[in-house]
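@channel sequence for tomorrow's demo:
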Amino acid sequence: MNRSNAATRLAFPPGLSGDDDTTRGYPDPEEEREMLLSVMAHNLRGPLSTMSICIELVRRDVRSKARILAVMESTVQRMDRLIGDLLHFSGKGECR
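structure tokens (generated this afternoon):
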């Protein structure tokens, strides 16, 4: 093995030489981004649905307003955590 091949082997582990043929099977960064955004959108819709139901119940003057407000508060906290995680992942915010 000549020096050039040895340097290449040190720089890239077997199967990761950087050639197109060896990178097959690795996820496409754009596909990963789209998947992450899809999952985040889905995870944020759940709490929004909960909030919508709670708001409708309060409008109907339901007797258990204190319980509904507690659910709304925990839902807002969940959304805040999800958004904080998203900002942290994107490098625009701080992790909590």
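heads up for whoever presents: The CA atoms of residues 38 and 88 lie 17 Å apart.
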